[in-house]
Amino acid sequence: MRNAWWTVFALAAAAQFAGCSGPQSKDAQDDARLHLDDFTTAVGTIPVRRVDALFAPGGHSATAWLGDGTLWNGDVELALLDLAGRPVPLDDGLAFQGRELGLHRDAPAAIRASTSGGGGLRYTVRAFAPWTGGDADSASWTRVALEVTLPTVTSERSSFAVARIGLRAAGESEHPLHPEATPADSFRYEVREGRLLRDGRLVALVRATVVASSTERPGLKGRAEPLERGPIIAPALRRVPLISLETDRVPASTLPGPVLTFDVWLAPVGGVSADLEPPDAALSFDASFARTVAAWRAEMAQGATMEHPDPRLQAALVNAHRLLVGNRERRSGATHFLGSPFQYRDLYLRDGARVVHALALLGRADLAGQALTSLYEFQWPGGAFLSQRGQLDGTGQALWALGSYAALGGDPALVDRLVGPALRGARWIALQRASATLRGGPAAGLLPYADPRDNELARGHLFGNDAWAIAGLEALAPLVRARGRAATADTLAAEIRAYRVRLLDAWDAAARRQGRALPPVLEGGGRDWGNLSAAYPCGVLAADDARVVALDRFLRAYHTRDGLLTYGPSDSVHHYLGFDRTQAALRRGDRAAFRADLEAILDHAQPDGSGFEFASRDGRYGENLPPHGTFAAMFVDLVRSSIVYERGDSLVLFAGAPANLAADASAGLVVRALPTRFGALDLAARIAPDGVGAVIEATLPVPATVAWPPPARVRAVIDSNGTPRPVTDGRFTLPAGRATWRLEFEPAGGGEEGR
Amino acid sequence: MSGGRRAKRSSTGRAMASRSPDGRRGGPGPRARILAGLIVFFIVAAAVFAWSRFMDGRAPARTSARSVQASDAAGFARAGRAAETRLDYATALATYRDGLKRFPNDEILLGSYATAIKNASFAVRPSRGRLVPVAANSHERVGAALEAIALLEAAQRARPQASQAPLQKGLLYAAWGLPEDALVELYGAVTRGDRSPELERTATAITLLQMGRGSEVDQKGSPASR
């Protein structure tokens, strides 16, 4: 018996050593690859500095593959250098038959290539962050496969160098420091058998691999040789070439492209012990990637499904989904969600509320609950929620996030636990208003002045703070009522009514004084920010309110460039600032504005569909690298609204769907288990093969109004029993429940809109 | 209670002393076995204790994060100021905090700690040619402020009539942008006799800003958050 147990243990250990653990299925092994064919076409069309984010859930750091071809993990830059010591420009999109690669279908990963290394050399580099599933710190490693293709060799050559590997600890720009990066200004580098050590810790590892020769691509044996015998002490900004990548004798051959390959690992921030091996060291690059893909597929399979027929939008949606669920780290025994994998390894209330909402929309109440819990750690003794100095919108946002979480399938036990703190937040709001009322003046009855040093970048009474407070109270009231506290809920309702009246009175007066609609700051000045959320999500004003429409026109006329809102200087565009006004456009039926905004958002996206915060005219981000978590959260919300949103006691379907769903008639729009305030929604819509109609299959939790996208105009809607439903001006309603409907279009000749 | 325990021990001792050396003499009685067991237990415990002390000596010191220890409040204050002088803000904060935990009523430590917490220059330190945050994330920053408030409230409970704790709480709230919360505390400091210029300046600035008269603030002095 004892021997049997030992046998089992030994087999398990052998399997672990061989890398057989983790959620790796046979399918994943078969089709998980990091090849050109597995990438979409680039999403963005406007040239930007490319940043590929290589990250995995749980990791304490991530790696940015920057526009200059170097890899930066917040602490160490790893660069492939040519023989002159310059970074090889691995950004040559034309290297892939003129196609710029977009999103990898399965995991955060990228391929880049360059033909400009000199001497006819061609470099192809593939990279990803190994992950086995779960929230493990070891996920912070980055794995790189370097393939050097030599030119055709007509006469035998002796050993020669093909490239170098160099390190440094800072950069002039685009190198945000990780919070855990060692504070120092110079470092000691050395190399031991392919191990690149910095101050005695392993920060990177280079190994030559032997590729099997083939008639098409003969393989060569490579070497990774140290360039210096002793240690080098260098300032943080100096790039230090440390390893020479070389090949043995190259025999004469008429065959093109002998190949030399190397495995390279970039360690987590701060490095690891000098003798430690990467967790996937025993696996080939492809096997490690297959395991990573299996883990990502398992992660992404959870929750709701949204398949959009527009391939560009779908790629951006998958990217946003991936970032939202994967941009998290384990810290102090809890999961913390992050604003960005790079410069924003933190989550403030203003971003966190959006992330909670988006995770709930994606059907990931498990993750949304963790994010929400971390936001409630920001409560102060007086009841306010404050994560950053002077950012008083946090209290309303914390309450709104709780309401969103509860409405979209959140754990009732967690809601029960957080209603108490939320009520303390509501009392804080009431106390602030009471004090301001007693004091009088133009800000009577409002939240205090604020100096957020962000967003509005002004000191004064900010519209957004009060709008969010009202939204938070609105979200809290039904939770309190549902828990049997009717008197408290009634008090909240009365407070909301009075608050809304007071806010709009104060801002109407400010608008008259300042000569513009819905100014961001009562006292004047400031940048438009919180005022953009008046209609959505705060609901202080209706989407078709004249003030909301006037603000939208004002911004489109004076603060827009290339379809995006500018932020501050007119040559600086903001990628997600306009999302709320686009949501408002959708809700007032302005499909043209919605589609135009969406196109501009996608045009400015990274090739993989990720979004940034703001960028200069030349497409540079400074230290604020994409992808940005708030962009991802608001993008998910926007796409979801274009398919379905709640209005009163019913749903609105397809308000922002593309013309005829998609240019490709065979493509359908499918959502499964999508949370709504009324329950989960299943929906599939597809143009009929003859193109003169469509089919909708749906399980609706409540009745829905359908605004079928033009140019098709719906003439008749018929259920599976042949019973028609009334259609008015091309619009119709569908009853709650599960059914299939056939749509008949009026004969072609419309064409209200392009898309 | 303790008298009863002594009486019980005493009667047990008498019983042991009066026991006759009969047939039980050939081996230890149950009480003797218990005694022997206890002796063995204490020897083992002492060995374990010695080993753990030895291992502790090999491990990194387990003092609180980079704090400098001192025997009195003045020593903590001196060590904190020395850390500030060499721009080691993390050590300064930890030293003040640990000092306050041991000497919660010390006014110099209270003032130094609260000033350090709300001073924006403590939020960053130089590294690799740029300024980086001392605290890794907002949970740490907010956590430090909340811990400071808790320490100040402990100090206030210890000396309810002293004005230093409410004054520092008020200034801390003002620095964090919670003006109404600040005014409540500053009022508490006034009722306890505080007449410091900083209090008047901060309260005036907050009141003006609250009344929408922010343009007058810069002429009469900025609030503590600026």
What can you tell me about this protein's structure?
- The complex is a heterodimer of chains A (755) and B (226).
- With 755 residues, chain A is α+β, with helices and mostly antiparallel strands.
- In chain A, the strands form eight sheets. Chain A has an eight-stranded antiparallel β-sheet, with no helix packed on it.
- A two-stranded antiparallel sheet of chain B has the order 1-2.
- The model of chain B is unreliable at 1-27 and 52-64 (pLDDT under 50).
- Chain B has helices at 2-17, 30-58, 73-85, 89-102, 107-118, 138-158, 164-175, 179-191, 197-210, 217-220, and strands at 124-127, 130-133.
- Chain B is elongated.
- Helices cover 65% and strands 4% of the residues of chain B.
- The chains are: A alpha+beta (755), B mainly alpha (226).
- At the A-B interface, helix 8 of A face strand 1, strand 2, helix 6, helix 8 and helix 9 of B.
